[in-house]
Amino acid sequence: MPVRSGTAARPSPSGAPGRPEPRGGAAGARPASRAAGARRPAPARNGAAPLVQAVRRLPDPRLTGLGGGLFCAAVMLALGCLDQLLFGASLTVYGVLFLPVCALTALWVRRGDLVAAPVVVPIAFAVGLLTVTEGDGGLGGRLVGLATALATQAGWLYGGTLVAGVIATVRRVRMMRRRAAERRRTA
Question: Would you state the torsion angle of the CA atoms of residues 104, 109, 113, 115, taken in this order, to the nearest 10 degrees?
Fold first, then answer.
């Protein structure tokens, strides 16, 4: 087998001559610092931290105002049932679980419906609270239990509404700044 300049023939493990490969290593050899199946880390965009890059890879659904309300209410209803089963209707656990749901709702509502996020969050809190409250039989007892739970858990309710409001406001300000920058560029 003729050998091209800059390459050397390498015999196969059985001793037969193999295909030529470039000098200095195997043709398909990987650097020792990287394993065969490992993926190369993505370069940091604009010097962003790895945590920011991880957040950017998360799903990014865009919900309408109604969709955000339905999402938040359904999740809080499910979390209320889960709280009832696992923790015996702990209102503190329910309140703690409410905060990340508020944040996700405010992050996933589309730009045109940002004002809906702080509005639907308290409604979803009350919907999910129905599964966690205790009442003395009947609809009237359940409603009294709901009113009592809303009064005693107002801190969680206000905190979640504040989280959704702050996130929606920050998103709105960023959107307005982007639009202003685009107008300046085109002008």
Answer: 10
